[in-house]
Amino acid sequence: MTSEVGEIMEKLKEKKTEYEAIASTDSSVNLENIDNRIIIEVLSPESVTPTQYFGSGSKQYMPSGSQAQAEVQGLRDQIAQMQASTVEQIAEVQLRAEAVEREAAAAAMAVKQSRKYDEVQLQL
Q1: What start-end ranges are recorded for coiled-coil regions in this protein (predicted)?
Q2: Spatial distance between the Cα atoms of 63 and 71, rounded to a whole number of angstroms
Q3: How many domains does the chain fold into?
């Protein structure tokens, strides 16, 4: 595992702990799909704080039915974009990790061949 992947995993664990702490004190917080929310937050270039995401209890409002539907659709669109972006970012990280693994394997092979060459030279 590369250090970048390790850092991302650590951030994911920290955020999950943070969200669970908020949920334990605020019964209105819905933890459904929390893992997806955390992944989006950690991998998003503009991270959102839990308070920004869940909102505060003092600023509640009731939109009309059509406003609520439009807002829900907008949020669904945002989620779809974030999920697509997250999938792309994960794929990029995996590709980088695979490239590093290939480079390490090639370097190990070169060292092995160099040692064999040196052994043959010593025998001559």
Answers
A1: 65-110
A2: 9
A3: 1
pLDDT number for residue 45: 59
* Alpha carbons 69 and 65: distance in angstroms, whole number: 6
Contact 43, 8 (CB under 8 A): yes
3-state DSSP call for residue 33?
Answer: coil
Domain holding 28, by residue range, is 3-56+70-123
Please check whether residue 18 lies inside any domain of the structure: yes
pLDDT single digits (tens) 82-99: 999 999 999 999 999 999
Whether the pLDDT of residue 43 is over 90: the answer is: no
Other residues' Cβ atoms within 10 Å of the Cβ of residue 57: 8
Neighbours of 69 (CB within 10 A): 11
In a domain, 63, yes or no: no
In this structure, are residues 18 and 45 in contact, taking their beta carbons and an 8 Å threshold?
no
Q: Global pTM?
A: 0.38
Closest C-alpha among 32, 50, 43, 54 to residue 82: 43
